[in-house]
Please model this.
Amino acid sequence: MNIPKFTIGLNQALDQDQFIEFFLKNDPSIKKDFPQIKNVDDIKAAIRYVYSHQDEHIGRGLKILKDNIDTLNRLAEIIGEKLDYDWDGISEITINPCSFPVCPRFIETSSFMVTYYFDKSSIIGICAHEMTHILYFKKIKDSLPNEEINTECPSKDWLLSEIFVQYITNSKEIQAITNFKDNLYITEDTKVTDDQLNKIKNLYIEKHDLLVFRSRVIEIL
Model:
């Protein structure tokens, strides 16, 4: 199986821009972790500090990622097996540590960010989560070339992917590597009931073709 190259690096400008974006959206996790941040200037000052004291801060997340390239390769292999799809066409996945407690992913560029101050299990577990998003959407888009697939919140395809990813990342094969219990990460204003989730889980257990699964889940949602 083709496995993408993992490029790990710092991107201070992206880190700052994304931190500001989620702050301005009133993301609750930022309010919880950074109650001292009151405005955009506070974020800019925090970013300058984090990047000027890398060894104490963002460099720790960078080291965890760089030290675990082999683990990321193995996760990519398992995710490909679970989705029954090759990574062919995705030659590189870029991972940037970030300074805020949200982990945005960018499907079009096969890249994502992961919070530097999380522990190792969380960082590697989040990598598995975001990598699954990337390959999931590749398979859907490749299979439906004439259909526009909206990968971003609040679309149904976005919500479906957040539900689906857990079935992969909480599998025994992934769990044996990450030791990280994945959860459903959706916005506070996204409404999905336990009944819907149970119906979707049952569809997954029935092992339908992914396109059939997607079509039936979108009807449920």
